[in-house]
Structures are given as structure tokens and as C-alpha cells.
């Protein structure tokens, strides 16, 4: 491995973590913005109430006798409170405007950094592929790419025509699951799926399947993992079943959250399934845990439109 490649990897890692912190900061700013908007609405409601009281005083002013002086004092107080609310509303409006501009700028920077990370990662992968023993480097760069996919909403180009079987075979090769000694692996492609090609992004679709296979490989210490490729109506489904530790139905959505690991005894950052779902949805597909699966183990389903 050349020094230049190592430096490139470190640079990409730094950019990825910078992107993560930038996105987190943007989310915090959005929360603050929402709180300010809630405060603004509360002040508006208070102003509406005070104005309503003011109108009531005006309507009953002619009938005020002995309480005339008290009514005037109350009126002055309402006017004073009204002015305070107006000033507060003006401040909140300006603050909201400033936060919106800051949030937009932060999101623009985040998207620019995300694009830079993708370009550098792809360049590093291309360089690593030229090396004689590049598999560890490619694995590292793939994980780095997964980090950049988490939370991304950037559109993915999916204009290739790719055989459904080819996506599965590429994912199997990328995951290295056939080389694992402690479990057996099988792949089954039904006749309709074998004759079907998808209009998608083959590399990204294969990465989703590879992530599901990696997850099965990680949590299956013995037994087997099976990949099924099925044609279901207007979709192709990539179904990954394993005989591992399984996932409780109530955790069926939680496992797709960032950095969630249900078992701390296994290594990892808890982003594989998050990245898989992010990519799938940007390909107009979906990744879910089949909570009806009786086991043993777990079943994940990745669906893509034909």
C-alpha cells in the first residue's frame, strides 16, 4: 500500500467525520428553529387573547362607571403588554429568519462535503483495485462510503439496465460470504427473476444486498445464510435469511437507526442497516425486517421496482 493511498484514506475519513458532525449541527439548529417557532406561536396566541380583552373593554367602555379609573389602568397595562409582545414577535421573526439562512448554508456545505467524500472514496477504490492485495483497503473504503450514505438525501442515478441475478452475484462476491468457514451459504434465483433486468444503479443495489449479507454473516456464528432472488409483481425482492441470533419484532425499526447495536458483543459501528435503507430508498426501493419470520434467525427483504 503506497503512502499516498494511506494519506488519501485518512483524508477521506476526516472528511466523513466532518460531514457527520456538520449534519448533527444542522439537526440541532433545526430543533432550535422549531422551538423558536413554537415560542412565536405562543406569543401570537397571547397577543390574540390580549386583543380580545382590549376589544371587550372598548365595547363596554361607555358602561363603565365607578370602575372607569381601573379600566383605564387595565387598558394601559394591556397596551404595555401588547407592545412587549410586538417587540418579542419581531425578535423571534428575525431570529427565525437568521436560523433559516444559517441552516440553508450549513446544508449546502454538508452536501458539498458529501459529494467530495464520495468522489475521493471512489477515486481511492479505483486506485486500491489496482493493487495486488487490495481487499482490506477496499473493505475499509466501502465502510467509509457507508458512513457517507447514512442520513444522505442526495439523489442516486439509476438509469442502468442490470440483470437482477448480476446484482446478487456482485453482492455475494463483495461480501465474501462464500469464503466464511463457520457457516454455509446458498443462493436461489427463481425463473422469473433470472430473466428480469432492472432499471437501477447496479453498484449501489449490490451494495445494499452486500450490507444485508454482511449483517447476516456477523450475527450468525453457525448454521447457514441463504439469499433468495424472487420476482414479486412489479418488484424484485432480495431476501436474506440467516440462522443467527434474530431480532425481536419490537426492534424491527429501531435497528435501522444510526449507531444502534442490539448486541454489544459484536464489533461494528451500527450503520450497516442504516446505510442499506438509505441507499434503497434513494433507488425507489425499501429494506425491511420481516417481523413475521418464525426463525430461527432473521429475514431481511430488499425490494426494487422492475
Strand order in the largest sheet = 2-4-5-7-6
What's the tally of helices? 7
Outline, from the CA principal axes? Answer: elongated
The level-1 CATH class of the largest domain = Alpha Beta
Average pLDDT confidence is: 75
CATH topology of the largest domain: Heat Shock Protein 90
Give the CATH superfamily of the largest domain. Histidine kinase-like ATPase, C-terminal domain
Instruction: Tally the structural domains.
Output: 2
β-strand number:
7
In which range does the helix fraction lie?
A: 55-70%
Secondary-structure element pattern, one letter each:
HHHEHEHEHEEHEE
Q: Biggest sheet, in brief?
A: 5 strands, mixed
Calculate Rg over CA atoms. 28 Å
Unreliable stretches, pLDDT < 50, 5 or more residues? 262-268
The proportion of strand residues reads 5-15%
CATH architecture of the largest domain: 2-Layer Sandwich
| Distance N to C terminus | 41 Å
Structural class: alpha+beta
Descriptive account of the structure:
With 306 residues, the chain is of the alpha+beta class. The chain contains 7 helices and 7 strands; from the N terminus they run αααβαβαβαββαββ. It has helices at 3-60, 68-129, 135-149, 164-175, 191-194, 202-219, 272-282; strands at 160-163, 184-189, 197-200, 224-232, 235-242, 286-289, 299-305. It has a 5-stranded mixed beta sheet. A two-stranded antiparallel ribbon has the order 1-3. α3 packs across α7, α4 (164-175) crosses α6 (202-219) and α6 runs antiparallel to α7 (272-282). The longest helix has 62 residues, at 68-129.
